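Supplementary Note 2. Why include the ligand at all?

Several targets in our set were suspected to adopt different conformations when bound, so apo predictions alone were not considered sufficient. For every target with a known small-molecule partner we therefore ran a joint prediction. The input for flavin-adenine dinucleotide is given below.
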Amino acid sequence: MADISSNFLGIKSPNPYWLASAPPTDKKINVLRAFEAGWGGVVWKTLGTQVKNVSSRYSAVDYHGSRVMGFNNIELISDRPLHINLREIREVLKEFPDRAMIVSLMADNSRESWQELIKQVEDTGAHGLELNFGCPHGMTERGMGAAVGQDPEIARMVVEWVMEAATIPVITKLTPNVHSVVPAGKACVEAGTNALSLINTIQSVTGVDLDTLVPNPNVAGKSAFGGYCGPAVKPIALKMLTTIAQNPITRQVPVSGIGGISTWKDAVEFMLLGASNVQVCTAAMKHGFRIIEDLCEGLNNWMDEKGFSTLDDFIGKSVPTLTNWEDLDINYHIVANINQDKCIHCGLCYIACEDTSHQSINLAYGKPYNTYSIKEEECVGCNLCKLVCPVEDCITMVEQRKGPEYLNWKEYQRLGLPLNDH
Amino acid sequence: MPITNNKLTFSEYQENFSDIHPPFETVEGASVEANRCLFCYDAPCMKSCPTSIDVPKFIKQITTDNIKGSAHTIFSANIMGGGCSKVCPVEKLCEGACVYNLLEEKPISIARLQRYSTDQAIEQKWQLFKRKPFTGKKVAVVGAGPAGLSCAHVLSREGVDITVYEKEQKGGGLMTYGIAAYKVTPEFCEEEVDYITSLGGIEILYGRELGKDISLVELQNQYDAVFLAIGVGLTRELGIKGEKLEGVEDAISFIYNLRTNPYNNIQVGDKVVVIGMGMTAIDAATQAKRLGAKEVTLVYRRTQDEMPCTEAELNIAKLDGCKIIWLAAPKKILGKHGKVSGLMCDVMQLGAPDTSGRRSPESTGETFTLEVDMIIKATGQLPFEKLVSYNELQNRNGKITIDENGITNWAKVFAGGDCVNGGKEVVDAVQAGKDAAKGILNLIMKTD
Ligand SMILES: Cc1cc2nc3c(=O)[nH]c(=O)nc-3n(C[C@H](O)[C@H](O)[C@H](O)COP(=O)(O)OP(=O)(O)OC[C@H]3O[C@@H](n4cnc5c(N)ncnc54)[C@H](O)[C@@H]3O)c2cc1C
Ligand SMILES: Cc1cc2nc3c(=O)[nH]c(=O)nc-3n(C[C@H](O)[C@H](O)[C@H](O)COP(=O)(O)O)c2cc1C
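The joint prediction is reproduced in token form.
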């Protein structure tokens, strides 16, 4: 059995799964249930000045009959009184000393407010702090949340204030609502943050109700831009994570990966691209805390199969494989192959290729079943047919190199090789 | 043992004749199933539908909450798409071809999904088609069954006025008078006919029989074209002794009575034998059982490998508790006091294949006798040979012959459906009506 225990900045947890700062972590009753279910840690719902929420707070995007492919909210930071939160944090820490307790913070925009809040939170015995520079709605209008994270200089300043006061590890949570997360990430690292976490939610409009014509969530006939998360945002989060894992400055600190993690596979992918641990929100909000069981078991089995005994054996392992386009090998060439024994004649590969790709699939009419085959000389190896094929391993991409040696785009141009082969 | 009616209670009848293929009760049910559809290209299901309904498209439209569009997709290929969703032997058509079968997975419930969309359209009377302006052309259709109605609908959409001559008092043909009661209700059949005619331009004259109330010459003279869609008639005679005894019934009339009278009025024996193994035989047997017959036995001269009904239909009969005797050919019907009392059968064996490729049964010389009080004959329907030959319509054993344009040997007179093919399914008749409409339009809209 692999060891899936995690050590993030010295903060230990029995597994690398923390619940992200959000409703699942906003009070003692939830957090106790989460720990009983087996979660490794929590980032307590963001604390700051007292706020008031509206009713009708969430909306979602469904896809192909599946609910909540993407999730959206217009909630603010914790709307419960600070002293109650602090008391409950203390109580939970006493009951579950082996779990990570991080507290998310978003103070008013002054050194005093941040430092005062930090002092109160540290008094609870919490293991770490997470600075919420990411909330995309409600708080930015008050000069907080994403407004801080979007301006690297403001972010740097706030992190400096925090680091003057903090005696426990500080994680800075980045907003994805920027063209690149690297500038803010760099500023925070330079200002002394001990770690980064990303992503927070992405500004969104999930849809418009076609009867009322009001976007959702509908708050008395009006709506507001919300924050998007859930499975839909995972690819975006992975890309942002990788840029942090690759930058020479930001990669000096550990990263807690967040955004659309629903399964152990998602979690492994985040870790392969540089996350030391992961945080989950939407998946828990959709299914409850019980998902932690498969998150752990799946990870464990995968590690055993791959021969990884600790998380550190594979964290960041895939980062170097994401390179620049111009470094890719142009001599690498693959063509599709259809396994006729597995083919169910649905024609999805054919129509995708014929209408939108390279007309590389041949249709031999049959009633009721057509036969489809690849025109190898036309196939550019784009993968589209394989992606749309509903049968596992029916379409495979077979390597047929154009040349034995590695040849990248720069070399290709230098050698004056022919550009257009179609 | 007398043949009597009223063997069961009202609620027993109700239960026995309730819908055999219940619809989706909820949007979610339909949506889960619709989302399972892979949306195949040049889809095998569509190719296996005689009317070529664009199945992936109408299912996709269910997933996008475009039920009107879904119903339109169905009805534009098959105006009896509602009825077909309840009566089609889908296991050998669309669902039998679904690619999920090749994955050893349950095929998409195409019929149920089709019913989901069409039920709503019919219940809510959605007007999904608009007639083109009147062309000045008039066509007579004989027979308000699936073939006739399908033809009428296509023609009316194109701005042709249609008069339908129907000998019965209701439309729908065998849909109303022949198909098993647990597949479609009389109310549904009536609603379906109303829905089809609500387009306008289709007038059905009930109680008007060709050959009695009106002649083919008259129709030919009064209309720009005529479409004969008269279906086929009663079951062929067995040609054995005792056929006239009381208690020997024709399956078509037995079912006709059942579809037009309250169940407690229908007489049924205690020990019933049904002769044949086609769809009609199965329907007669299962419905006799559901009316309260204690014992129902199907006798068939060949084996299961040669039976004309589908496996799914055979299973309905088996589940209803009907017994089956393979390789048994009726030889003689025995009677007592003018009433049927037994059926003597030859025990058969299979010999060499006949012209249809099926192995012919031959007598072994052995016989056995079943004690019965009712015999239902279901050995294939006979065409209306008298009417056909009286009118000198070219035919093969009473089946009207048509050319590739759907036209008979009479000028301007077309034919299609069971009266041409000898008896297939509703969906084939609907397609025949469409084909005829195309031929008719080519003829009457010719600008020369
Ligand atoms: C017992 C039984 C069960 C069946 N079950 C199924 C099933 O489950 N699924 C399926 O798809 N198919 C089934 N069929 C077959 C199906 O009903 C027929 O293929 C279909 O109805 C044929 O349509 P049609 O329009 O050609 O003929 P019909 O439906 O027979 O319609 C012919 C119409 O013409 C009228 N008519 C006849 N003669 C005249 C005349 N001289 N003047 C005026 N009107 C006339 C008739 O009254 C009738 O209304 C079944 C058939 C039978 C007998
Ligand atoms: C309803 C809701 C409230 C949230 N509140 C906070 C918050 O108070 N502080 C914070 O840092 N992130 C907050 N988040 C963002 C999550 O912590 C997380 O970054 C984001 O949802 C992406 O992860 P996921 O895809 O697993 O949900 C909230 C998310 C949701 C859905």
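Residues 6-321 of chain A form a domain with the TIM Barrel fold (CATH 3.20.20.70). The pocket of flavin-adenine dinucleotide (ligand 1) is lined by residues B 87-88, 142-148, 165-168, 173-175, 178-179, 183, 209-211, 229-231, 252, 255, 279-280, 283, 387, 417-418, 423-427, 429 (CB under 6 Å). Comparable summaries for the other entries are listed in the accompanying table.
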